[in-house]
Amino acid sequence: MNTIAIRKPIPLIASLILAFVFGSSIIGTPVHANTAETSDPSEIFDQNLSADERQALLARLSDEQVRDIVWDLIGDSQSESTSSDPMVMELTTMTNQFREGLAERFRQVPAIARVPGIVATAMTPPGESAGTLWLVMAYIVVILLVGWLVQSLFKKATKRIPEALSAASHHTFPVRLARRFGLLIYDLFPPAVFAVSAYIVFLLAYRGHEPNRLLMMGLIAAILVAWLLNQAVNFVFSPKRPDCRLTPLDDRDSRIVSSRISWIFVASSALFFFQAYLSAVTSPFEVAIVVSSVNLVGGLTLASIIIVVLWLVRRPVSNLLLSGNPPGLIRKTFASLWPAIGTGLIVLLIFVGMFAAIALKQDGVLLSVLKTLLLLFLAPLLLGAVGPLIREWGITDSGSGSIPRRGEAARDGLVQTSRLIIIIAGILLLGRMWNVDLVAVTRSQLGEQITQSAGQILVTVILAYLVWTVAKRWIASREETPAQSEDAEGHPETGGDPGGQGLSRIATILPLLRGFLMVTIVTVTAMVILSSLGVNIGPLIAAASVLGLAIGFGAQSLVADIISGIFFLVDDAFRKGEYIDVGGNTGTVEQISVRSMQLRHHNGPLHTIPYSQINTLTNFSRDWVIMKFELRIPFEEDVEKVRKLVKKVGQRLLEDPEHGPEFLEPLKSQGVNRMDDSAFVVRCKFSTAPGKQFALRRVVYAKIQTAFADAGIKFAPKRVIVEAVTPELAAAGAAAQQITTETPPTSGDDRG
Predict the structure, then answer these.
(1) Closest to 600 measured CA to CA, from 620, 584, 580
(2) 3-state SS of 630-689?
(3) What is the pLDDT of residues 459-492, one digit of tens each?
(4) I want to staple 713 with a disulfide (CB 3.0 to 4.6 A). Which of 132, 383, 599, 708 is the partner?
(5) In this predicted structure, which of 203-212, 475-484, 487-496, 696-705 has the lowest mean pLDDT?
(6) Number of neighbouring beta carbons within 10 Å of residue 87
């Protein structure tokens, strides 16, 4: 509205100027003759002029002066419209303040050289010589040693307490967590004993010099805070107490992680309390320069230490991220990239801290940075601990408290909800740490736009996460695995037999549905986020449509594969885990994708078959299967007796508690199927579920063999009759040969 208000008078003024110039040319007034008498053209904008005086002044202006005035008005309006944007002005002001303030801070860095002199002066009591400084330092060392000795005696006197708390092992996570909390409470006493005893000894030796009291209090507080934070690290990783360790890391990795993280806490505590001591003992004229320089150099040094520690513990932390449930693609990617992500967060945190201290003039930025670092350490631990705590709650070591699959899905949903609450609470706590007033931020133009965009993005991401979590849990609760099917592990004999029943129809389609939902949710979320950032997503949607159309025309075989696969799934022609035959390629359906399926042959080869190449499909794993086999019976045996004996074997198998339920139709004999030169061939058959026929056939063979042996019936072997050459046969053959040689051969026609 301001821009419109500024630009609106321009056409009016220009019209008046042109009207007066045109009128003067008609009247014949010599314009150029009076140019010399015209004063400064800018006088036309004098608000004290009357309408007649302004008209007379316009009449004396030349065409060139009029054009200059018009162009000046246009330039002024553009510059005013550009600079009148509050958001741009606010951002420009903060950027300039940050740039100038940062340059000023770096110019003040050499003031750190005065820090040793300031500390030495503060430690030396008034009227004492310079040698007193060494005596004060000796007092401090002795006091700290006395505190350390007292806490060591306390630990030795109470060593049975931690031994009793950490004696039991192999408990579930909630039990180990409760025992570890008890150990943590005990571990808090040695630092407290150290601090109290050191402070008492200091009071006994104190001679009334206030800076030394502040120094001693700062040292004790820094050691106490670093020690307590180190105990919190040991609470999680327990490098010296593997029986109560909450993480799956081994002893070596636990020692590496806990010791490296302790570096960060020691450096943070030393920096915070040292700058507080400097603020108290430095003169008011140079306290701002000295303390700001120490904070700048100390903060950059601390950031460097943290980045080095991140890369030193990358392998143990990656192993920790990949532990537990089988990791997915996101977890594997994060486990490999987390040091780079952590480095980026530390750099961003340092930049935000410097910007808040320099451009926004915030106080207590160093404390906010240290609190944020502590939050970044505690938040992943809470996110990781809530999973096993909820999943293993109520489950005993003996496994009697195991929960069904639906209960596991409900607990997984509770885990995701708890983690979302922790993340939201962490964000709110982060705002409190940095003294961010959301109401005040939203009042400014820049803050209003940033808050609106950030709010839309945050709500979109949360909704997408909730939708994906609900969909994934619903799919997981209805998915089946081959281990859950009836014939997977019912009998050891059935391990490698093909033809077993596959998964249900919905279990076959659910993996495809999960992939489709993931792509849809990610795409819609990305589009909404881009729209919230001010990106016009219309051209993106149009380009995606054109690209899809081009793919449809250029990859017709791909489209044919997808369409054919849809109709095969709709017709329920095959399912995952079923044994099928596709054009001579047989195998178990192992994987189903959008355009093809993979068959695993029972000998090991894997066939990948596009759906559009399937002309005929034979499914061996549906409903039921009939197993037929043949028995060879000698000619002298009674066939009717064999039939009755096979029928009795079938009845006994039906009554068998292990194999009886697996028969759909009992074993029976179909009689003599054919005869060969040495036996009757009797055919038998039974009906069962797909995949069980081979195991049952082995059982049937064993039962029939036992029954035939008890009845005295033998199986007929295959015989080959070979006639040997006897002396009589040899003499007859020789006589026949002689007759053949003595008879003269006949030639020609014998019709006389």
Answers:
(1) 580
(2) EEEECCCCCHHHHHHHHHHHHHHHHHCCCCHHHEEEEEEEEEEEEECCCCEEEEEEEEEC
(3) 888 888 888 877 877 777 666 554 444 444 433 3
(4) 708
(5) 487-496
(6) 14
